[in-house]
Amino acid sequence: MRPKVATLVFHPALLGCFWFILAAARDLSVEITGTDTGDCTTPCRTLDYAIRQLSSGDRIKVGVGTFAGSSNRNLSPGDLGKANFSIEGYQTDLTIFDVERAGRFMYLDAAAGDILIQKLTVRNGACSALPDDRNGAGFKLVQSPAKLRDIHIRDMDCSFEETLPREFNGGGLYLVDSMASVQRMRITDSVGNHGAGVATWGADVSIIEDSIFERLQGLKWGGALLTEENSHTEFHRCRFSHCYSTYGGGLDDGGLASPLIADCVFDHGTALHGSAYYGYGLSSTRFRNVIFQNGHASSSAALYLTATVSPSFANITVVNNTANVDVAGVRSFVSSILFKNSRFIDNRVPSSGADGAIQANAGGLVLEDCLFEGNGPAEPGGTVGITETGLKFECLKS
Ligand SMILES: *[C@@H]1O[C@H](CO)[C@@H](O)[C@H](O)[C@H]1NC(C)=O
Ligand SMILES: *[C@@H]1O[C@H](CO)[C@@H](O)[C@H](O)[C@H]1NC(C)=O
Ligand SMILES: *[C@@H]1O[C@H](CO)[C@@H](O)[C@H](O)[C@H]1NC(C)=O
Questions:
Q1: How many CA atoms lie within 13 A of 217 on its CB side?
Q2: Residue ranges of the Right handed beta helix domain (predicted)?
Q3: Among positive and negative, which fits the CA dihedral 301, 307, 312, 314?
Q4: What is the pLDDT of residues 145-184, one digit of tens each?
């Protein structure tokens, strides 16, 4: 044993190791009954104070109660040199951070490193109270690998009377160039100009799974979601219900965005155009195994595709949607659009001369292994309409 002890004392690399073992991760705590003194190994009162006490690897446990006031909001650990820690509430519905309409809950960036936040509720964020970059009233993540689990974000307000394309987006969650992992998030009862639930920008590649988006209103475009620029954000097993926007009750995209929407359901969306989805810009959104149901567009379609988009659709079901004007299911201005292995069922428009399932007017519509059933009006051509002449209409194995 003796030679080993001597090595430890004289070898700087091993000394470093030895120090690391001594600096073990600690549990800090925040409780309604705590006080902001000491190092939070006995309960403190506010999250800001606890974050200032932590070292990398520490865990902050937050108890039951509603935590409000200026030391429980507008938190930015990276700016304090704090990184690589976790925050865990007692239970999602019992540990509540109330932002009191005075800004956002938390900003996380690359400097904050590997963060895990779980089991808490955030409510009453307001973008208009932010000094600049008025996006993300719940969380704003920039170049962040954060993990968010079992978080409920509700009653966010990211609305503004003017249309500023890059502001007042992402009521609950604003993701820029991030690689975050979000699981079992619920974002509900919120309003924003664009994407009252989530907005994604830059080269975002975050993954959002098993999450619920309900009763979200996008006053300008994108009720639940806005995806922009080069976002390749993925949404797996998510449900979007009762969301509204003028353009895209569930999702509006733009730029070169190519999000993946897989195994998701859009239910009871409403819009002027696109009660579930409004495709815009040079986006190429990927839809796999998605159900679009029970939507209503005051003008046209559950899925509204402007001329320059190139979305892909595989195994989608467009069912029981209504619209007042052109078409209930899909309105496409795209030069060639392919639906693979998809179903169009019981989509209805009241007026004659309109189409139940699909209306395409700028070229090819390719249907591979598709089913049409119960769409109306039932007059000839009322299911699928091609509104310009001389254009290609292929129906393969329909
Ligand atoms: C956080 O972790 C990352 C990656 O493990 C590391 O590069 C960084 O230095 C850590 N930051 C701090 C403040 O400990
Ligand atoms: C098609 O999507 C539905 C959900 O919309 C899913 O239940 C089914 O498994 C998918 N089929 C294939 C072959 O992926
Ligand atoms: C069809 O949609 C309407 C309006 O959203 C709804 O009331 C009705 O229950 C839906 N029908 C089915 C079979 O889901």
A1: 9
A2: 156-322
A3: positive
A4: 999 999 999 999 999 999 998 999 999 999 999 999 999 9
Instruction: Identify whether the C-beta of residue 385 lies closer than 8 Å to the C-beta of residue 357.
Output: no
The span from the CA of 35 to the CA of 354, in Å, is 66
Q: ∠95-101-103 over CA atoms, to 5°?
A: 90
- What is the Å distance from ligand 3's center to 374 Cα? 14
Report which ligand 1 atom has the smallest distance to the Cα of 56: 14
56-396 is classed in which CATH architecture?
3 Solenoid (2.160)
Ligand 3 centroid distance, CA of 246 (Å): 21
Rounded Cα gap, residues 92 and 224, in angstroms:
21
Q: Give residue limits of the domains in the chain.
A: 56-396
Instruction: List pLDDT tens digits, range 349-366.
Output: 987 778 999 998 756 789
**pTM above 0.85?**
yes
What lines the ligand 3 site, CB under 6 Å? 268, 294, 320
Distance 241 CA to ligand 2 centre (A): 19
Identify the helix (H) or strand (E) that includes residue 186.
strand 186-194
